[in-house]
């Protein structure tokens, strides 16, 4: 079946989040890792391409985004969705606005919308300001993110320096009035040449109204919760029909490894809890690895019983991250840790691991690419926005849980194992 909705996600945890939420519709979702080198075949109505473009240098991010669009067009997609983080993560240069503008130019359109709200995970947008739970974004732990520290909560201010076109807002008062009011507001903004429109949303009903109003826009941008509302609209229009049986996990040995490169507040708590529960653990010290190489961690891993699901982590509190970054630079530290965890994943697979639980978007990108995955099936949801995924195309069948830094409960690493075992 030809693709209907073509989605481009700027990181891997974001892509599995999106694929999982789209999959709730019961329609078939296909998740590709990177832009496939082959022309489209065996396409699903809902296609997602996972990129590692969020923190990439701008020209590379744009190149990847455009290539993804070309592939999705060839797959038959009629509408497109650009997925970024529900906390609008972007570097100081910012890749979200330029990626959206590149897609708009390639699609020949003058306006798109931006809505990162993800109410189930506590992200809401009000008067253009993004909240994480009760805190404005810039007062939340996201202010200390190692690669994309978010120091402003206002989406219009964040977007403005990233784009050439003008930025506007459709606020909650209008959104609450329904689809027609939203459409009218967008038309009024279009007459003022407002190309980039931030949309307020505080709950899923708001997102459904926005999705309804924007259903004919060639390009919509936002978080996974906005995209979640689209399949039902396509079904009601007769663009998609039928249900897909949820893919089941391939038979997998129990051997598991947990790899954590996220330094988010929630991941810090999850790692601490997992270690307190008795999991075998190894802490990567980035300065030590920079000085002496990664052999010590590989030696430790080789001695582990993988049925005990050991954890290797670089996860650290903000003060420790700052200390490391002051010695070796944020980009170099991030890349070194991602490389080390990716090599650990490959070593663990060679030692028999078939289940990989990974915390962190950039980290997940590095690990998934190193494992050679090219397409993932989306399986059971462990927590909102975090499904298990199954890779049948790698050298061995494996299961991967790619956890966004901020998602999941404190017991996530054991929750993931319980869900996979169907307990
Ligand atoms: N101790 C540390 N010091 C400096 N950087 C770190 C440390 N631990 C992890 N990192 C880097 O921080 C970044 C975290 O990003 P990511 O994996 O996307 O996590 P999240 O999902 O929380 O955003 C990665 O590039 C990772 O390599
Ligand atoms: O929208 C979200 O919050 C997630 O899907 C996401 O993008 C995850 O990014 P990381 O927190 O960097 O893993």
Describe the overall structure.
- The protein is an alpha/beta fold and 423 residues long.
- The protein folds into 2 domains: 5-236, Rossmann fold; 256-420, Four-carbon acid sugar kinase, nucleotide binding domain (Molybdenum Cofactor Biosythetic Enzyme, Chain A, 3-Layer(aba) Sandwich), CATH 3.40.980.20.
- The protein is built from 16 helices and 18 strands.
- It has helices spanning 12-23, 58-74, 96-107, 155-159, 172-177, 179-191, 204-213, 224-228, 230-236, 265-276, 286-292, 295-302, 318-328, 330-350, 361-370, 412-420, and strands at residues 5-9, 29-33, 46-50, 79-83, 112-115, 123-126, 129-132, 135-136, 166-170, 194-199, 219-222, 256-260, 281-283, 311-313, 355-359, 375-383, 386-391, 398-403.
- The strands form 2 sheets. It has a 15-stranded mixed beta sheet with strand order 9-10-5-11-4-1-3-2-16-17-18-15-12-14-13, with helices on both faces.
- A hairpin with a 2-residue loop joins strand 7 and strand 8 (135-136).
- Helix 14 (330-350) packs across helix 15 (361-370).
- The longest helix has 21 residues, at 330-350.
- The protein is globular.
- The protein binds adenosine-5'-diphosphate and the ligand O=C(O)[C@@H](O)C(=O)COP(=O)(O)O.
- Adenosine-5'-diphosphate binds next to helix 13, helix 14 and helix 15.
- One of its GO terms (molecular function) is kinase activity.
- Belongs to the four-carbon acid sugar kinase family.
- Catalyzes the ATP-dependent phosphorylation of 3-oxo-tetronate to 3-oxo-tetronate 4-phosphate.
- Pfam families: NBD_C (PF17042), SBD_N (PF07005).
